[in-house]
């Protein structure tokens, strides 16, 4: 699982680099990494193009620390290419709506990060509002068909999964049996 997560995270960071080089939303070239809206990517004092990534977790959480570790590894690996990822952590402490409000405000202000993390069920709402960038042409079709369907809207790809989560479904077997529903063949492998 760790190897898969590392691979997916590495792929995401490579896409971040490509996205930052091709889209460069919100940059103003001032070197402060804040962006401005003229499509010039922000550059730091060392001449690194800055790609801002907003994570919807707290920086001190285990997940936030893992993201920062990957950002640091990316920056070390690509320091000669003059590209640098910058992590922005906006924990959903006020619930998902607080994070969504932050995204909408950043979009209106022109300060939206180049890359954002979001829950796949929000893809349609975010894409239709213009919050997400169509990355269909950046990912080979055969890779899209493997597991990216949740991040599609109107047949276009708007996101890549960092990790997969699951939701449990519990039921009372006796109630099902009493209702005439045969659940004897259902197992963890065949739910």
Please explain how this structure is put together.
The protein is an alpha/beta fold and 191 residues long. It has a domain at 2-117. Helices cover 37% and strands 10% of the residues. Strands 2-1-3 form a three-stranded parallel β-sheet. The longest helix has 21 residues, at 2-22. The radius of gyration is 20 Å and the shape is elongated. It starts with a helix and ends in a 13-residue tail after the last helix.
Q: What tags apply to this protein structure?
A:
3-stranded parallel beta sheet, alpha/beta, 191 residues, single chain, two-stranded antiparallel ribbon, 5 strands
Q: In a nutshell, what does this entry contain?
A:
The chain has helices spanning 2-22, 62-77, 96-109, 123-128, 141-147, 173-178; strands spanning 49-55, 83-89, 115-116, 152-153, 156-157. It has 191 residues and is of the alpha/beta class. The strands form two sheets. The chain has a three-stranded parallel β-sheet.
Work out the number of β strands. 5
How much is the radius of gyration in Å? 20 Å
Q: Write down the overall geometry.
A: elongated
Please give the order of strands in the largest beta sheet: 2-1-3
Which band does the percent of strand residues land in? Answer: 5-15%
Name the helix and strand elements from N-terminus to C-terminus, one letter apiece. Answer: HEHEHEHHEEH
Helix and strand arrangement:
Blueprint: H1 2-22, E1 49-55, H2 62-77, E2 83-89, H3 96-109, E3 115-116, H4 123-128, H5 141-147, E4 152-153, E5 156-157, H6 173-178
Parallel strand pairs: 1-2, 1-3
Antiparallel strand pairs: 4-5
């Amino acid at each position: 699982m760790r190897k898969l997560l590392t691979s997916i995270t590495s792929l995401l960071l490579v896409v971040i680099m490509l996205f930052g080089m091709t889209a460069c939303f919100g940059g103003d070239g001032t070197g402060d990494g804040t962006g401005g809206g003229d499509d010039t990517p922000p550059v730091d004092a060392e001449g690194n193009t800055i790609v801002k990534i907003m994570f919807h977790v707290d920086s001190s959480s285990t997940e936030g620390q893992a993201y920062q570790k990957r950002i640091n590894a990316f920056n070390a690996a690509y320091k000669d290419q003059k590209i640098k990822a910058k992590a922005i952590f906006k924990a959903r402490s006020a619930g998902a709506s607080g994070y969504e409000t932050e995204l909408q405000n950043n979009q209106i202000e022109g300060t939206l990060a180049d890359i954002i993390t979001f829950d796949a069920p929000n893809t349609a709402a975010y894409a239709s509002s213009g919050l997400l960038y169509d990355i269909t042409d950046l990912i080979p079709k055969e890779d899209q068909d493997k597991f990216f369907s949740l991040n599609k809207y109107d047949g276009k790809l708007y996101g890549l999964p960092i990790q997969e989560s699951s939701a449990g479904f519990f039921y009372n077997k006796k109630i099902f049996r009493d209702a005439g529903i045969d659940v004897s063949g259902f197992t963890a492998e065949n739910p």
